[in-house]
Design goal:
The chain is of the alpha+beta class. It has three helices and seven strands. It has a seven-stranded antiparallel beta sheet. Helix 2 packs across helix 3. The longest helix has 33 residues. The two termini are 31 Å apart.
Amino acid sequence: MKIITTTIYYIFIITVLALALLLAASLFPVTGNYKVKVVLSGSMEPTLPIGSLIFLRPASSYTVGDIITFGKDTKTSVPTTHRIVSMRTEPTGKVFRTKGDANEDEDSRDVLQTEIIGRVFFDLPYIGYVLDFAKKPVGFVLLVILPALAIIFDEITNIWKEVKKRKETS
């Protein structure tokens, strides 16, 4: 029984740490220009379901079939993640045509290479819901702060018991 409890405890700690790291990676720039984003629409389903966590990295070149994220990435503008369906070279540089897998039509505007944030190289379906919730104040408290406090309290209790035990044997 103690082995099961210990295993659950360590899984809990690893989960809290992983969530905190993902939250930090999505809020702050990561070295190497890697980015973490959450898919907010169904335009790329079933490849990228709503709520997927996607990991992006810039590439020196992009090809037809790549899934890319492009556009403005501000507090009021959300970038788009779609698949490249065609490309052409113009005097100003490469221009891409994109389309969501679930969409019937291609996107109405071309995407310049300078607008591309990065290519999707990994995704975790539905994990983005948790990360998106953790970005909100209530979610941050429930998913990061309270579990972290529980771990800290448990460790302090263990230290207290160990100190008490050593004092009794001395």
